[in-house]
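User: I'm writing a short report section on ligand binding and want a predicted complex to refer to. Could you take this sequence and iron/sulfur cluster and write out the structure as tokens? A short remark afterwards would be nice.
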Amino acid sequence: MPAPKTFHVKSFGCQMNVYDGERMAELMTADGLTLADANAADLVVLNTCHIREKATEKVYSDIGRLRKHARQHGREPMIAVAGCVAQAEGAEIIARAKVDVVVGPQAYHTLPALVRQAAAGAPALDTDLLALTKFDQLPTRRRVGPSAFLTVQEGCDKFCTYCVVPYTRGAEVSRAFDAIVEEARALVDAGAREITLLGQNVNAWADGTRGLHDLIRTLDRLPGLHRIRYTTSHPNDLTQGLIDAHRDVESLMPFLHLPVQAGSDRVLRAMNRSHTRDSYLRLLDRIRAARPDIALSGDFIVGFPGETEAEFAETLSLVDAVGYAQAFSFKYSPRPGTPAATMADQVAPEVMDDRLQRLQTALNRDQQGFNAATLGRSCTVLIERRGKLPGQMLGKSPWLQSVHLLTDAQVGDLVEVELVQAGPNSLSGLERISQAA
Ligand code: 5AD
Ligand code: SF4
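Assistant: Sure. The structure tokens for the complex follow:
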């Protein structure tokens, strides 16, 4: 197979995968390849997710589709599987789908070398879990959008019984303070106005005695950086220091994604969540006391093994008690190698469907309620892209709502708006100071 000249990276799953995908693209560009469409590229990198079975199966159907389309056009692209499926399944993917390269989430700095090896005729694989070495070997960030991701922490030591992350991303590790600040500075130079600090367990980030709140307070002073966010947090690592930062740091946006997964203590124990319904609710009280307008977001799993109707009702009542601004909810999916996959009393698919629907109805109701409650408020919107209509731009409010507005402002500008109308998925805003004024 000739060495590829063009490439395409397609990322699935979480925001960390989006970040990794961007870094892979930068790496391949630095290696002399040019970006192309998925259907035209010589090399296609599928940056995969293993979190639920559906996500994993998608990889194989995607590979099939890619191959079929390429063959119809007389081409045979090189295919690389990266990300969490690569880590979990390793050489099995080469056997099952005859791909050329398999590279895990901690090893993708070797992608250019693996691609060369594959071009020389041998399938290439690297699934080393040597955390953090990759960051030192990635090129400097050059061009990014106004809202950029920055991975500060990876991996997880919590071992929730349903979750593959500790196996695919490895143990909890934090990047060094200085390296993060340096990357943040490069991101701002490259166009970022907002940075979302990423980690599977981001609030466990630590460097010596410094915690995430110290990092946030330092980044707050970075000229040109207007907004800071972080995700995903674990309730048990949410320190008073971080809560205080939500009170004091203006650039720290009033939004918190704090997964709870379920509302019943029996289920939380079986999930090995190490927090209770009550400790979670009390934590939210403290956060709301520090930052009353904070928008809360969460993750939920319905149909965890053994979940009864009464236990599921406790999830619904927790949702009622919190009033989430937005949330993600999933049917439990048994993952190979996790303790929950072999637990007794797996819940029937129809029961899961029914519970998911009821949960989503409640979450949608609260999301719309939250959006409606922000109408009439004035806030800044960070413009991220153009809308479909002439003069229309799309951006995000501090509470992470999508806002569209008519404005002369450009991508990357912060605009003062009044939120005037709420649709199911977005709001419309009115620019407060007109250009003519
Ligand atoms: N089945 C369903 N949902 C899961 N999640 C993690 N593992 C599973 C699983 N096995 C959900 C959790 C987590 C989010 C990223 O994905 O809600 O917070
Ligand atoms: Fe999916 Fe988890 Fe991997 Fe992200 S870290 S891609 S959510 S399996």
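A remark for your report: The radius of gyration is 22 Å. The pocket of iron/sulfur cluster (ligand 2) is lined by residues 13-14, 16-17, 49-51, 83-84, 164-165, 168-169, 200 (CB under 6 Å).
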